[in-house]
Amino acid sequence: MTTVDRLVEDYLDRLGEPAEVADEARERFGVARPQRPSWHEIVTLILLLPGSFIPFGWLAGVVMLLFVLYGEAITAWMLVLVFLPVLTVLYLGLRLRQA
Fold it and tell me: Do 27 and 65 share a domain, yes or no?
């Protein structure tokens, strides 16, 4: 073992266990422990990932993502601002395809 290896090992021993360091940092900065993902987050991932192959699955995933990010604070205007460009692109794409 080289001198550098010994120094690094000694420094890591002085720091302590990673779980203890993380707990101390959470306490110092007032950060809550990470929680398990809610069912909203799981459904959002399920709809977003394969949603491009399922008609309107991706759009439903975007709606769920908005609800996950903004929760109760989501408004109708947010939905309009998100879906207006998406629906416009879809409409134009269908019109160009028919031409």
Answer: no
Q: What is the pLDDT of residues 43-59, one digit of tens each?
A: 777 767 776 676 667 77
Structural domain of 13: 1-34
| Total tally of structural domains belonging to the chain | 2
This prediction has a pTM of 0.37
DSSP assignment of the chain equals --HHHHHHHHHHHHH--HHHHHHHHHHHHTPPPP-PPPHHHHHHHHHHSSTTTSTTHHHHHHHHHHHHHHGGG--HHHHHHHHHHHHHHHHHHHHHHH-
Same domain, 51 and 84: yes
